[in-house]
Prior knowledge:
Blueprint: H1 4-9, H2 12-35, H3 47-57, H4 64-73, H5 93-105, H6 116-130, E1 139-143, H7 146-161, H8 166-169, E2 174-180, H9 185-193, E3 201-204, H10 217-226, E4 229-237, H11 249-259, E5 262-266, E6 291-295, H12 296-299, E7 307-311, H13 316-319, H14 353-363, H15 366-388, E8 392-394, E9 402-407, H16 414-428, E10 434-438, E11 441-447, H17 455-469, H18 472-477
This protein binds pyridoxal-5'-phosphate (PLP).
Amino acid sequence: MSTELLYKAYDPEHFHQNGQAVLDGLREHLRRLQTTKDTKVIDFIQPEQEYQFWKENFAKFTNLPDFLETVLKRSIHIHHPGYIGHQVAPAVPASAVGTWMSDLMNNGSAVYEMGAANAALERLVCEYLMEPLGWKNGDGFLTSGGTLANLTALLAARKAKALNDVWKEGHSSSLAIMVSDQAHYCVDRAARIMGMGEDGIIKIPVDRQYKIKTDLLESLYQKASDQGVQVIALVGNAPSTATGIHDDLKALGQFARDKNIWFHVDAAHGGAALYSDKYRHLLEGAEKADSIIIDGHKMMGTSSITTAVLFRQAAHSYATFQQDAHYLWEAQEDPEWFNMGKRTFECTKSMMSLRFLSIVAEHGWGFFNDLVNTLYDSGRLFAAKISKHPDFELALEPQTNIVCFRYIRTDEDLDELNQRIRKAVIEDGRYYIVAVQLKEGYYLRTTFMNPFTSEDHMDQLIKLIESLALQPKIIANENK
Ligand SMILES: *Cc1c(COP(=O)(O)O)cnc(C)c1O
């Protein structure tokens, strides 16, 4: 048996050499995206073709930097100023550096000894995040993404509010949550995972501004009660993913208190605005929530993936997963904030605190204020341009950096036309935008995630869409 491979794999010099080469490549990559005109954000290739490429070529790579450079080239560039698509942050380099180090350290952090610094820093991140909410008796932790975070918060809601102890006894009664019909699909999924079924998800219709119709809360709640269903929680969007519109959190919180149900705020996207002097008002009412989640990798510029789950009352953050695991913990009853696995769904997890705090260590908390203000301002500027333009229509006045709009100068079916435009934009590759099906039809959807997306880029995008809209035949023929 030879150990030669093993020594090479762990050789510090080899690591440094590879790391340096990859780092140099990334510096060039960022520099090019920031300074060169007409680079592509995406070079769209059909999934089957992409698979074939790797199937044929992967084995030919003999060195790591070459392999990684090819991965970079064949991927979407989130740091490109033409990236105005989904809500993923162009990772702040400081966050990526922190992540890089933590990925080598691999401190699993389920128990304190497996990541002492990370455990303490995670507590600190949560305290910092709760500060603008004024949650002095709160507590929280970091987990892998908004999807898991919403599930975790709803499990806490069930523990606190359900009349039966479902964790212990299983289901013996019907439970439900109330949620906007615009909520992220993961809330629906969480409720189903929790065994509530379709009837356990009470979808509240939204008004023309895409906010929960608060005047329907009472009747929907009563209807459920009359059918013997116990409503345990009400979920507010801050903002909703599709439209970027915030629910009236104050009204929702008041209703939840009146009914003694849990109030959860899904602020995966907009929670970062707690740090913005200009846009904090959008979260008014969130301070009365029982729980809130905030994604780092959306509006806080962190590497994926890290989400804070915060509870106004500390005890709730420990209540959910009370479970025996004697091989991990000696004291079962002590909350032990430092043993994270007691509170998270995950056992081993990554050192997520570094994704936030590497940014703060380098740039300070003011960074988040500047980022949110710049990006939300971009949304407004773009929306103003769209609403002034006779050939375009805005779906809604945006509250955030999410802007939904469509091209309307045509006698064609608007849905088909805008679908074709979206496809043509992707194939062109200089801009990346997405789309959304709203009640009124199919809309193009942009989310301004990059602080370097300038007014000039906005004008170019509008021009590009106009020119693509005028050549339907050519695009239709390109249907691969
Ligand atoms: C993005 C998003 C989620 C899901 O978060 P992930 O981190 O992608 O799992 C949930 N809710 C809302 C409102 C979101 O915008």
